[in-house]
Amino acid sequence: MFKFNELKQIHLEITNNCQASCPQCQRNIHGGLDNLLIKLSSWTLEQFKNIMTVDVLNQIDKYYFCGNFGDPLLNNDLIAMIEYSVSVNPNLHIWINTNGSLRSKDWWQQLAKSLPENHRVVFGIDGLEDTHSLYRVGTNFNTIIENAKTFIKAGGNAEWAFIRFKHNEHQVTEVKKLANELGFNSVSIKDSGRFFVDSTFSVYDKNGNTTRHLEPSGYSEIKFIDRNVINNIQDIAKESVIECNSIAQHEIYIDAHGQLFPCCYIGLIPYIPVDTISGMTEIRVQMLNEYNTLIKALGGAIAQNAFHHSIEDIINSNRYQTVWNKFWNTSQLTMCVGVCGTSVKISKPKEMFVENNSLDSTRVS
Questions:
Q1: In this structure, how many other beta carbons lie within 10 angstroms of the beta carbon of residue 286?
Q2: pLDDT tens for each residue of 156-173
Q3: How far apart are CA 318 and CA 44, in angstroms?
Q4: CB-based burial of residue 187 (10 Å sphere; 0-12 exposed, 13-18 middle, 19+ buried)?
Q5: Per-residue pLDDT tens digits for 235-272
Q6: What is the C-alpha to C-alpha distance for residues 189 and 174, in angstroms, rounded to an integer?
Q7: Do residues 253 and 260 make contact, with C-beta atoms less than 8 angstroms apart?
Q8: Residue 270, class by beta-carbon neighbours within 10 Å (0-12 exposed, 13-18 middle, 19+ buried)?
């Protein structure tokens, strides 16, 4: 594991609150029911400054606001956090990942002015007016477009991130054309990796009734998890080598409660409902047991909490420096096998068991 003086970038979840109800997001259950495992939390400006100290901001090259569950625009101190960061290190790269359906015109103009030269705001826009909200439930296409136009006109660098499904795959060319006309710097197209076992995904209403089904894009090259993977997970883990992307990127993740991990995938584990996907309960329980064992080995949750300890002290601690190699090389964490593992026995998508909120808050990696 790298030391603090090798840290290059930080993934920050400054809030786990979001106004959207994207069906495949873990913060809700199929879009209709709340995930009761999640307790809302948002950082204050003071907490941000205590974590992102002058030493930290001068050490890293980049940080980005994203997370597993929240939209950073719902943190009222977002702009103040950026202004503080830029005052310390004006050469920082800062990315913001958002559904873009919030805030006023004045706020978007202020955001553009507060960001450093090296910045990007990634707008999650999954289609055009007639299709966007079929997945991005609770957001408004026209509001997002107006916000993006305001931000771009004020000097902001924007990216359009498009999650491709069957219902919007026919609009890719038109989306690229519109994005170019509006002044977006780029368009990224991603296919959802959240179809498990079955090739359709049910969407619920607030009473838990199925209202419709999502289907994957016909152009997707993702090989979705199937019964063979579920039934042979132990053998797959034994044959896998974990090549941690966070080590390669020299990155850490800090969640809305201050917990520090190498990546957001590990931070997601305790919030995954165990009974929402047919056939996956055993794997979910296994991951949770592994997570609890990991936290104990790290010295408990408080030992990994950036609200209580500095980033430098956590990273440089003997436990952090030694425990991860054991759990990657010997214990073979199931989540890590699914995300960063390689196996000669199976061809699988990078995100085998769960994809973090990168789809819903449009993190582009």
A1: 17
A2: 999 999 999 999 999 999
A3: 29
A4: middle
A5: 777 778 888 999 999 999 999 999 999 999 999 999 98
A6: 13
A7: yes
A8: middle
**E-state strands within 73-155:** 93-98, 119-124
CA distance linking residue 95 with residue 67, whole number of Å: 12
CA distances from 226 to 192, 256, 302 (A): 15, 32, 37
User: What size, in residues, is the chain?
Assistant: 365
Range of the domain at 42: 4-361
Q: Is residue 215 exposed (0-12), middle (13-18) or buried (19+ Cβ within 10 Å)?
A: middle
Dist CA 284 CA 197 (whole Å) = 14
What's the token pair of residue 122? 């990634």
**Domains: count for the chain:** 1
Distance, in Å, from the CA atom of 261 to the CA atom of 270, rounded to the nearest integer, reads: 13
Q: Record the tokens describing residue 133, joined without a space.
A: 């909200």
The CATH number that applies at residue 89 is 3.20.20.70
* Residue carrying structure tokens 């790290």: 298
CB 126 within 8 A of CB 135: yes
CA atoms within 13 A on the CB side of 208: 3
Picking from 171, 179, 283, the residue whose alpha carbon sits closest to that of residue 227 is 283
- The tokens for 116 are 């450093």
Tens of pLDDT, residue by residue over 26-63, are 999 999 999 999 999 999 999 999 999 999 999 999 99
For 216-241, how does the pLDDT look when each residue is reduced to its tens digit (9 = 90+)? Answer: 999 887 766 666 776 777 777 777 88
CB hemisphere CA count around 62 (13 angstroms): 16
- Tell me how far apart the alpha carbons of residues 53 and 306 are, in angstroms, rounded to a whole number: 11
Distances (CA, A) of 162 to 140, 147, 199, 211: 15, 17, 20, 23
Nearest partner of 179 among 141, 153, 149, 150, judged by Cα: 149
Alpha-carbon distance 121 to 106, whole Å? 16
**d(C-alpha 79, C-alpha 26), whole Å:** 27
